[in-house]
Amino acid sequence: MASEKVVSYEQFMEHQQRENLWILLSGKVYDVSKFLDEHPGGEEVIVAEAGKDATESFEDVGHSDEARDLLKGMLVGTFDGGDKLKSAPAPAAKPTHHSAPAGGSPSPIAFLIPVACLGAYFAYRYYGA
Ligand code: HEM
C-alpha cells in the first residue's frame, strides 16, 4: 500500500463542503465527494457526518464488507487531530435535534374551557327550558 498521509484537524476542516468532503471513520480520513451520488443510503446521511467522527453512524448501519471495500479507494490518510472532533461542535448544518415540532401535551386548562362552556350551554338549555 502507498504510504499513508497524515491529516491534521485543520486540513480535515478545510474539506467540509459537499463537493469536497472528507469524513472520519475509525481514525482514517476518507474523501467521499465522488461517492455521495452513489451511496445507497443517500447523500444526506453522509453530509450529516461532515466535520465529525462518523464511525458510530457507519457502524450502526451494519455496512457490508463490500461497503468497507469501497472505503479503500477513498482513503486520504490517518487522522492526526486527536479527539478534537469529539469535543468541537460540528460546524456543518445538521437538520437534526433543532426542529422538533411542538408536540408537548397541551395544558389541561385549554381542554377544560370548551368543555365547561359546552356544559354551561346545555345546563342553560336544560334548566332554562
Ligand atoms: C464512505 C463511507 C460509506 C460507504 C463506502 C458506504 C457504503 C454503503 C453501501 C455499499 C451500502 C449498501 C449496503 C451495504 O453494502 O452495506 C450502504 C448503505 C447504507 N448506508 Fe452507507 N456508506 C458510507 C457511509 C455511511 C454513513 C456515514 C452513513 C450514516 C448514517 C451511512 C448510512 C447508510 C444507510 C442508512 C444505508 C442503508 C440504505 C438502505 O439499505 O436503504 N453510510 N452504504
From TrEMBL:
This is Cytochrome b5 heme-binding domain-containing protein. One of its GO terms (cellular component) is endoplasmic reticulum membrane. Belongs to the cytochrome b5 family. The keyword Hydrolase does not apply. Its main location: endoplasmic reticulum. The chain crosses the membrane at residues 109-127. GO terms for molecular function: heme binding; metal ion binding. Keywords: Electron transport, Endoplasmic reticulum, Heme, Iron, Membrane, Metal-binding, Microsome, Transmembrane, Transmembrane helix, Transport.
